[in-house]
Design goal:
Length: 241
Amino acid sequence: MSNAITMERQRTSSRARQLVPHLLGSAFLVVIVTSFAGGMLLGSALGSSYHSDLLVNLSTRFTTARLGVIIDLLTSCGIVTIAVLLYTVLYRHGKIVARVALALWLLEAMFMALSRLGALALVWLSQSFVDIGSPGQSSYQVLGEWVYKGVYTQAYTIHMFFYCIGGLLWYGLFYRSRLIPRLISIFGLAATAMGLAGIAAEIFGATVPTAVFLPLLGFELVVGLWLVTRGTRDELLQAPE
């Protein structure tokens, strides 16, 4: 009787392990959708750069901005989910590296949320600015520019920095483990290295075209679809600890 129970537990554990990669792939795809939707909404509400009319224009787009923040907070939750699932799949192939990568992506999620806190602060500033009559020169505009450039934009840049460093570690573990085709892992490493170079340039004040970061989107789409449809090599996923 006890042997039968033990065998059933082992089968259940094995099925759960096989399900994790498919959940990971689904999480990648969900985060692609939420990050795109949230970015589009916030972009339409806040624009791509600060300008003197931003607080006035934002006063007509409060709902759009708040909805974008909510969706991007869901993206932060998705990042945490992906990080935990990646750790579950990859920690056997490098525990220290996986732990560092997990910490980096938790920081990524935190700075994403901090950036969106900046967006909510801009909504509050816009409401107050319009309530006092939108004077041409006021401390609201100075504070608005600081929040936009110093919190909303910079926190997002830092979130991408942690994403790229963590990504190099995660995708290096994928390459090492052969859980997915190495060609996909190499794609991820190359895209992440390119993204990291772009983020470093932005930190030093350069303007980096969006095309530099598009390979990251392409990789996440490819690896997400692969994991959903194919999973990982089960014999490696079930390797003894």
